[in-house]
Every structure is written in structure tokens, then in C-alpha cells.
Write a structure and sequence with these properties.
Elements lengths: L1 H6 L5 H10 L1 E4 L3 E7 L7 E4 L8 H17 L1 H4 L2 E7 L8 H13 L9
Parallel strand pairs: 3-4
Antiparallel strand pairs: 1-2, 2-4
Length: 117
């Protein structure tokens, strides 16, 4: 299972750059979702959670874990796509669930809107 999960992880600056350059963007208040048709068999996911948005590493890691859980549940919608989840702005710890709820809402739009390629 761990090997499969690692294979479906977006890694390396070139992979992120491709998604940022060619991806379709969906914006929310806290989260920006960028997706592009996957170059590999399984859709890969990556996160961009900057230090300016959440200064404490413990908070960045908690949000990342929560977002991974949301992505796991949205797996059928993101299959075949490379997705970057970017935190646009910071939030207090009490609003972390709102960040994840917004990400889930944006992920649900992936299945309905396909970019024209």
C-alpha cells in the first residue's frame, strides 16, 4: 500500500511546474485547486502549503493530513488527473475543518468539469 501511495504522489519541481503552467484552476476562499490530465496511470496529488500561510510546521502538517484524507475519499473524481492543492491564505486552527470542507467542495467539481484538451 505504501508503495502505491508513493507512486501517486506529485513530486519534483518539474511535475509541479507542469500542473501550474497547464492546469485548470478552481478557487475558493482558502484553497486553490489546480488540475491537469495525468501523465501517469494513476492521478497524482501534491500540496503547496507555504510558511507565510501557516507559520507553524505542526499546523501545515495537520492541514496536509486532513487534506490527504479528503483526497482519499474523492479518489474516483481525481483518477486520471494530476492535482495540486494550494493553500491561498492562512487560517486559525479553529477553521482547519472549513479549509478541508472547501477542498472537498472543489474536488467534487473535478468530476463534472473536464478541461478541453
Amino acid at each position: 500500500m505504501a508503495g502505491g501511495a508513493r507512486r501517486c504522489r506529485l513530486s519534483g519541481p518539474a511535475a509541479f511546474e507542469t500542473v501550474f503552467r497547464n492546469g485548470l484552476r478552481r478557487d475558493g476562499e482558502y484553497v486553490q485547486l489546480i488540475s491537469v490530465k495525468a501523465a501517469h496511470a494513476c492521478g497524482r496529488t501534491g500540496f503547496v502549503i507555504g510558511r507565510k500561510a501557516l507559520p507553524r510546521a505542526v499546523d501545515r502538517n495537520r492541514v496536509r493530513r486532513m487534506l490527504r484524507g479528503a483526497l482519499r475519499q474523492a479518489q474516483p473524481a481525481i483518477a486520471g488527473q494530476d492535482v495540486v492543492v494550494r493553500l491561498k491564505r492562512g487560517a486559525p486552527r479553529t477553521e482547519f475543518r472549513q479549509i478541508v470542507a472547501e477542498a472537498v467542495r472543489l474536488l467534487a467539481t473535478l468530476g463534472t468539469q473536464r478541461p478541453a484538451v
